[in-house]
Specification:
Blueprint (H helix, E strand, L loop, with lengths): L2 H27 L8 E2 L21 E4 L3 E2 L4 E9 L2 E9 L5 H21 L6 E2 L3 H17 L2
Antiparallel strand pairs: 1-6, 2-4, 3-4, 4-5
C-alpha cells in the first residue's frame, strides 16, 4: 500500500467517526427530529382503559388520578367536571427532565387534553411518538373519571 491509499483510508475513517460522534451526541442531547402521527384508536380493539359510562353521569367536582408510570417519567392528571361533563384536564405530573421529553410533551399534552374534553371519556386517540405518555394519561384519567361516577 502506498502513502496516498493510507491517507484516503484514514480520512474516510475519520469522517465516519466524526459522523458517529455527532449522531450519538445529537441523540443524547435530545435534538433528534421525530415525526409525530396521531393514531386513531376507533378502529382498533377497545382500550382496556376506556370508560363505558355516559359523560352526563359524571358528578361535578375535581378528581385526581393516580401517578402512572410513563417509562420516561410519571404522569398524573386532574379532571374538572362541571354540569356532568369534563370541563378541564390538568397535568399535575409529566415527563419533563429531558429535552426530548419536554419537546414531545409540549406537543402531546394539549392534544390529549382536548381529546379527553371532546370525547368526554378515555376513548381518545394516542399520539405516536408519545405513546407511553398517552397510555399513562389514559390510565390516570380513567381512575379520575371512575371517582366521578
Amino acid at each position: 500500500m502506498d502513502l496516498t491509499t493510507i491517507k484516503k483510508i484514514g480520512l474516510s475513517a475519520l469522517v465516519v467517526f466524526i459522523f458517529l460522534v455527532y449522531a450519538v451526541h445529537d441523540r443524547i442531547d435530545g435534538r433528534e427530529e421525530t415525526n409525530r402521527v396521531v393514531i386513531s384508536t376507533e378502529s382498533l380493539i377497545p382500550s382496556p382503559f376506556a370508560t363505558s359510562q355516559p359523560a352526563s353521569k359524571y358528578k361535578d367536582g375535581t378528581y385526581t388520578g393516580p401517578v402512572t408510570d410513563a417509562y420516561y417519567g410519571d404522569v398524573q392528571v386532574q379532571v374538572a367536571v362541571q354540569g356532568g361533563k369534563i370541563s378541564d384536564v390538568t397535568f399535575l405530573k409529566y415527563p419533563n427532565d429531558r429535552r426530548t421529553s419536554i419537546e414531545i410533551n409540549q406537543q402531546a399534552m394539549p392534544f390529549l387534553k382536548q381529546e379527553a374534553i371532546n370525547a368526554q371519556s378515555t376513548n381518545i386517540d394516542i399520539v405516536s411518538g408519545a405513546t407511553q405518555t398517552s397510555m399513562a394519561f389514559i390510565e390516570s384519567l380513567k381512575s379520575a373519571l371512575d371517582q366521578a361516577i
